Amino acid sequence: MPKPVDEDISAFDETKLESDKRLVMREFAQKLRRNVGKIPFADDVTASFYCAVDGKSPAFVKAVLFGALAYFIMPADVIPDFLAGVGFTDDASVLMAAMATVKKYVNEEHREKARVFLDKEPASAE
Question: For labelling alongside 105, which of 50, 66, 69, 122 has CA 20 to 30 A away?
């Protein structure tokens, strides 16, 4: 029986998707906690995480979001995160592009879970 269209990830590298997913599941919360006071898009990145792990999200949405979230986590990217003022601009660009691509799937439930998570985090975490 063929997979439903929204579960077809043939356009994506399944090995990369699984690698991105493992990285995100292992390191996302820690990276976010270390930087929550430094990134103005913490609510969007956290809502994206909740959308990516939502069992109801289609496979292509998970592939797009896990890829973007993995880029956010990786310390070696186009603009190193430690550069004050500009370190997260490339991360924000990648995440905003990913979210624009799948925006209809990032719903109020994901945003509410993000708010609850972020409300528990101190604004000056480091």
Answer: 122
CB 77 within 8 A of CB 86: no
3-state secondary structure labels for all residues of 47-96? HHHHHHHCCCCCHHHHHHHHHHHHHHHCCCCCCCCCCCCCCCHHHHHHHH
Residues sharing a CB contact under 8 Å with residue 97, sequence separation 6 or more, in sequence order: 68
Q: Is residue 88 scored above 90 in pLDDT?
A: no
CB 86 within 8 A of CB 79: yes
Give the tokens for residue 122: 């101190």
Q: What would the two tokens of residue 38 be?
A: 């430094």
Q: How many residues does the chain have?
A: 126
- d(CA 69, CA 65) in angstroms, rounded, equals 6
Residue 11 is which amino acid?
A
**Band (10; pLDDT cuts 50, 70, 90):** low
